[in-house]
Request: fold
Amino acid sequence: MRPAGPRAYLIDRFRADAAALRHRADTLRKAPIAPIPGPDSEDSGRMAAACDDVVAMLEAVSEVGDPAMLLSSLAALAPLLDMRAEREVHSPAVRAVYAGASLRIREVHQVEASSRDLLA
Reply:
């Protein structure tokens, strides 16, 4: 079931990603077996921390008030996430989290804005 509203959806999405990445990191640390495609345990841990950063940014956006203001506030996070991605030159995995979060926020914003236009 999808959480109510775009903010809740995004928070749920990145919390789930962080949990999955932490589980992956733990699994890789405990069972050094043949290489598994994807990030190693250290990258997985850093990616989970980046997901936590994204969640904190989303939680800072208030759901109280005008829905259009909420969408604008969420959209304003995308350029900040783009800047974080640009700073992660030495960690492509973390860079991908921030760039992906920016893209996901833009997609959600577009869908929500379009559905509001249809209702108007």
Observations:
- Residues 6-33+40-119 form one domain.
- The radius of gyration is 16 Å.
- The chain has one domain: 6-33+40-119.
- The chain has a mean pLDDT of 90.
